[in-house]
Structures are given as C-alpha cells and as structure tokens.
Amino acid sequence: MSCPDCYRGSVHEGEPRGTVTRAYGLETYVVEPADGTPLKGIAVIIPDAFGWAFVNTRLLADKYADQGGFKVYAPDFMNGRPAPLYMIDDMKIISSKEAGIFSKIYHFFHAMGGMLPFITYNWPTRAWPRVKGFFEQLRKEEGASLPVGAAGFCWGGKQVILLGRGDTIDGRPLIDAGFTGHPSMLSLNSDIENLKLPVSFAMAEHDDYLSVEKAEAIRAIVEAKPEPARGELTIYLKAGHGFCVRADHKFPDSLQQADDATEQCIKWFTAHFSNFTQPS
C-alpha cells in the first residue's frame, strides 16, 4: 500500500521545454538534450502518484536530458487518472499543528476522494500491462539500437521493479537498467529477490513506508547478486519519502539531496548504457 507521504511535497517552479506527442501507444512528454549532443540512450520516467503531467516530473525529465545526454520519455501510464494535485494542499492541512480538527477531518475525506480512485485504477497489477506494452514497443523500435533505462518514483518504483524481473521481447530484456527513488507498494523481499536486471535505489532515511532497516535488507540482496544483475542502494540522510521529485527547493539541503539522486540515476544509466550492444 502507498503511504501518506506519497501525496506530500512541494510543487516546483519552472517551464518544461519538451513536447507532448503520442509514443508507443500513450500520450507522452518527450525531451532531448538541449545542446544536440549524440544520445547515450533512452530514459523513461515512470512517475509518482501525480503522473506524467506533473510539472516536477517534466522538469526532472529535462534534467535527465541535459545532464545525462538521454532522450527522455514521460508517458501517461495512468491513462489520465493520476492523483489530483489538490491532495498536496490537503496533506499540508492534515499534518498542520495550526489547523482545527474539523478542517483536518474535511481535508482528510477530500484527500481520500482523490486517493481511492487513483489507487483503484492504477493498482500495480492493473497498470503493469500498460507499462509493459510501452516498453515492448520501445524496445522493438528505438530500443533496438539504443539502450533503455527506466526511472520510477514512489508509485512508479514498483513498475521499475517489475521491469527488472527481466521480461523480454524478441529475446531481449525490456530495459537495460533501472533506477528507483523511494519506491512504494513493494512486496518485500520477494520483489527484490526476483530482480534479474541491475537496479539502483535512492532511499530516504525518514521514510514511513520503507524504514532504514528495510532499505538495508534490500541493499543486502541487490548488492549480493551476480553481475550483470548486481544493483546498488544509497540512503539519503535526513531525507523523507518523495524527496527525489517533490523536495522543497526553499531548503538547500532538500535541493542538494534531490540533485544528488538525479546524479545517481544519470551515473547508473551512463555506466550500464556503455555496455550496450546492438543485436546482430
């Protein structure tokens, strides 16, 4: 199950520079390096609960393109049914010390009215065919000549773990490497034990869903896997669930943690993309 922190955080300022198109069956935000450098590969963002149109997600896609040299896709894996953004304000009031009890009750039920439809429609097993279908088409087309990475956050982290099981199309895995920031809705430890592809984890010290103890258990499993399936895990001190995407940029420490996680993903994909070989 997801946790309340999946719906908390800050909405970032900025104007995404990519375009919206239809790619591999889904409406998709797409962006390439601004300087026109040759592509190192393709990175697909599987978003948190607020979906592909969330400005934070699109600004992160721009960073991956410009700092990593990737072509970045952020598809609408939720088919237009993300969690509504008003839930961020609801959660602020619910957790506020100043708000009155009746205000908190009102906003609790208001938030539940957004969360329950989102979870029902986007339960991992229901969303997986949409995700899998996109990556199958991608691998058969652009992904035949370029490496593919999947970066998933909160809700999207579960889908990265499912991709990491090693499902194939035409005998090739759907992705070459995965990255996940503070994933939710995992089945521990079976999801981690079933990984057959390399996945990098960015975890928060203060995460009500995945404690440091659970994170260390994940680390022990992924770092003990044989190459090429060996993963990695970094715990970001003082960070909370959602920090990779919804960190409050008014606080320098939060901004630095988010930037470090972005760098972690870029380095991971770059290292694994360098081993890519086209099929003969």
UniProtKB/TrEMBL annotation:
Annotated ranges, domain Dienelactone hydrolase: 27-272
Highest taxon listed in the record's lineage: Eukaryota
GO MF: hydrolase activity
Annotated SUPFAM superfamilies: alpha/beta-Hydrolases
One family name in Pfam for this protein: DLH
Gene3D superfamilies (alphabetical): alpha/beta hydrolase
PANTHER family assigned: DIENELACTONE HYDROLASE, DIENELACTONE HYDROLASE FAMILY PROTEIN (AFU_ORTHOLOGUE AFUA_4G08790)
Listed name of the protein: Dienelactone hydrolase domain-containing protein
Organism: Trichoderma harzianum CBS 226.95
